[in-house]
Specification:
Length: 302
């Protein structure tokens, strides 16, 4: 048994002695990638490449797999071994993404400012009547406060408040022109994209009006080709949330409720006996209704 235990420990030790090392490069220019993440699949073990693009991992299983990833590049999963040379390929769709700025359109790879883009697909997935509602929770640094009025637009601040007395609202630009109307008049289905410019370099061309940020709204253009008709129908059911309480709709029920209230008042609040409370309640009802004698005594004597 002692020999068997030693064999098991030895086999586990051999299984954990493997290591992985290598360098990560950009496939297009061959330059090392700094800060790429190298993670061992199925574990929480991960390292980042240094300024030379190198990495090193130890204590791996013989069949370990590593995944190399970096922002803007396609991830790769490879068997772990030493002396690896990994070339990551840039994401073409991310680099070719177009951002609308003050002076036209610019590719993301050449854009140096801080901006967030919400596409038409993301807008149509939400049930919103105001285009600004599509930005809520999707743009970092954007704070939105809803108003009580249905016809008014929500209050928006980008990266905090910049003034105490002056306006903190961002500049809204619709298809290249400043827009001062109601945003809920714009159909969200007609919007191609919305770009939020947040830093000073991005909104410098708009002057003082862009000090609180700029929201660029670009609507869809006509496309060549066959005619395409899109129908989007939504419906629902609304009902009054107020509770429909039962109410008295005839004099008989009113006198009965009045009698019970007066009898309970005399019996439990004034300390009268049940019979005396009954008499006092009838006298009260008779005096208030203009009747004489016993009032409703005979009706409620039971």
């Amino acid at each position: 048994m002692l020999l068997l235990a030693l064999l098991v420990i030895t086999s586990n030790a051999y299984a954990q002695l493997n290591s992985a090392s290598g360098r990560v490069f950009d496939k297009e220019d061959g330059q090392p990638i700094i800060g790429a993440t190298v993670r061992v699949d199925g574990t929480n073990t991960a390292v980042a490449t240094d300024e030379q693009g190198t990495f090193s991992l130890s204590g791996l299983k013989s069949d370990a797999q590593i995944t190399v990833s970096y922002i803007g590049y396609l991830s790769q999963t490879l068997p772990a071994k030493t002396g690896m040379k990994i070339y990551l390929e840039p994401k073409a769709e991310l680099m070719d993404e177009v951002i609308v700025v003050a002076f036209g359109k610019q590719k993301r790879e050449s854009f140096t400012g801080s901006a967030s883009v919400v596409s038409a697909a993301e807008i149509t997935r939400q049930q919103v009547s105001n285009p600004l509602d599509a930005l809520n929770g999707r743009v970092t640094g954007l704070n939105m406060t809803e108003t009580n009025s249905f016809s008014s637009d929500p209050k928006i601040s980008i990266r905090g408040y910049s003034s105490i007395n002056a306006s903190n609202e961002p500049l809204i630009v619709l298809d290249g022109l400043p827009y001062n109307g109601y945003l809920h008049d714009i159909n969200p289905a007609d919007i191609q994209s919305m770009t939020v410019l947040k830093d000073a370099a991005s909104n410098a061309l708009y002057g003082a009006r862009g000090a609180n940020g700029v929201i660029l709204i670009t609507t869809k253009d006509a496309q060549r080709g066959q005619t395409k008709v899109t129908v989007d129908a939504k419906w629902g059911v609304n009902h009054d949330a107020r509770v429909e309480y039962d109410y008295i709709d005839n004099p008989g029920e009113y006198y009965e409720a009045h009698y019970l209230a007066m009898r309970n008042y005399y019996q439990y609040s004034q300390g009268y006996s049940r019979d005396m409370s009954h008499i006092k309640a009838n006298q009260n009802i008779a005096s208030s209704s203009g009747q004489g004698g016993g009032g409703l005594y005979g009706l409620y004597c039971t």
